[in-house]
Design brief:
heterodimer; A: mainly alpha; 8 helices; globular; B: mainly alpha; 6 helices; about 75% helix; about 0% strand; Cyt_c_biogenesis_CcmB (chain A); heme transmembrane transporter activity (chain A)
Chain lengths: ~220, ~220
């Protein structure tokens, strides 16, 4: 019960901080919008397969920027303060849930804008594509949260974050692109069930490993 | 002697499989022809790599609870040796692919995923170099190592099966089991795997001993 209460408080704190500054949300939104616009200016019209790949590449870089700040931007002093107040398990759960919510919101807005600029392929299955993007934002959130914790403890931020997270995110990204491509091509939904299961399994795996390892990482 | 019998076993096995692998008879097949012998040299590299990475995960877990420097050294040295075996696996695979698929690197899923899983461990080494303080380095790199291991397993064993690959044993292509009707290849393949795993372990113990002596002298 204690844990659930702590998680709730921490998520509330994150949201409040975000709401006051609106830095991450607006910054990343502007980032996504301008990237999509630059892509529009350079591509004008695109094929189905490029449509899908481009969306995931934009989302990959946007989510690295959005999630990386969860640990990297906090000062050492605040880390110490949080350490004295709550259990590490509560912290990683709260951060992951908050980042997942942030990413889901961000991805959906990005998808909406992306569909406005580049039309969604006519043969596509929009509902399936939305499921794929939600799954994708969940995986980005779980993996990047843990990696940003590792990078922030290692002491030098952005560069390390990219080096450490890309090899880990690539397998998930490949699965997601495959799943999303099925949706764009409008294949029958039963074809994609295996991939959905696979992404879910990888997510659960990452989450379980993070929960086990984070307490060791958090204690200095 | 009683302590070192496994080193002799490993050396004998590797010498036997190298000679027998090049000389003994193999099934005659189109396209593959004599390149089927690569099985004895390519696949054992991956087995040795997996064993070494598993050793390193074991010591990483141990070093998280024991906080001992020796466990950390064991973890990093087994990764160093494992990476060498992984690169050798990639190279032997690429040479084989040149003769059967026509290109050294044809961006087959199996090749790509193997390369990415090696990248994971390069990232581990970069992470180690980024941290100066020894205890902190031991802890953080151990955590990354444990975090990366399940991903490596997914990359090497799960994902290539989901995609169409030319690699034998994948995507409906027959593995060596189906060619080896009279078990001639098994008699060389299994000893080769065991031999290379032992040699890999041996190199790792030597490297570990060198590093621990260096550390004592500091």
């Amino acid at each position: 019960m204690q844990l659930a209460k702590q998680v709730k408080q921490l998520i509330r704190k994150e949201m409040l901080l975000e709401w006051r500054s609106k830095y991450a949300l607006n910054g990343v939104l502007l980032y996504v919008v301008s990237t999509v616009f630059v892509c529009y200016l350079s591509f004008i019209s695109i094929e189905k397969i490029t449509w899908n790949a481009l969306f995931w590449i934009i989302m990959l870089f946007a989510s690295i920027n959005a999630v990386a700040k969860s640990f990297l931007q906090e000062s050492k002093g605040r880390h110490l303060y949080i350490y004295t107040l709550v259990s590490p398990t509560a912290l990683i759960i709260a951060k992951t849930i908050y980042n997942s919510l942030l990413m889901i919101g961000l991805t959906l807005i990005a998808l909406l804008f992306y569909c406005l600029v580049f039309e969604f392929p006519e043969t596509g299955d929009l509902l399936m594509y939305i499921i794929a993007t939600v799954l994708g934002s969940l995986s980005f959130a779980t993996i990047f949260t843990m990696v940003s914790a590792i990078a922030s403890k290692a002491g030098n931020g952005g560069m390390l974050m990219a080096v450490l997270s890309f090899p880990i995110i690539i397998p998930v990204l490949i699965l997601l692109i495959k799943l999303a491509k099925n949706a764009v091509d409008g294949l029958d939904r039963s074809v994609s069930l295996d991939d959905i299961g696979m992404v879910a399994i990888v997510n659960v795996l990452v989450m379980a490993v993070s929960l086990l390892l984070f307490p060791f990482l958090w204690r200095d | 002697m009683s302590k070192n019998w496994w080193k002799i076993l490993g050396a004998v096995l590797v010498i036997y499989t190298t000679v027998a692998g090049l000389l003994l008879g193999v099934p005659h097949l189109n396209i593959l022809n004599e390149t089927i012998r690569n099985l004895y040299f390519h696949v054992p590299m991956w087995f040795a790599m997996i064993v070494l990475f598993s050793i390193s995960v074991f010591y990483s877990i141990k070093s998280l609870s024991s906080k001992s420097e020796i466990d950390d050294l064991r973890a990093v040295e087994s990764i160093n040796v494992g990476i060498v075996f992984g690169v050798l696996g990639l190279v032997t695979g690429a040479v084989w692919a040149k003769f059967t698929w026509g290109q050294y690197w044809s961006f087959d899923p199996k090749q790509n995923f193997a390369a990415i899983s090696i990248l994971l461990y390069f990232a581990y080494l970069v992470l180690r170099n980024a941290i100066d303080e020894e205890q902190k380095r031991a802890k953080i790199s151990a955590i990354y190592n444990i975090f990366a291991f399940p991903m490596m397993v997914v990359l090497l064993f799960v994902l290539p099966r989901l995609q169409s690959s030319l690699h034998p044993g994948n995507g409906g292509n027959p593995g060596f089991n189906s060619y080896d009707l009279d078990s001639r290849m098994r008699a060389v393949f299994y000893p080769a795997c065991l031999g290379w795993i032992i040699i890999g372990y041996w190199i790792y113990t030597i490297r570990f001993r060198i590093r621990s002596i260096e550390n004592k002298q500091l």
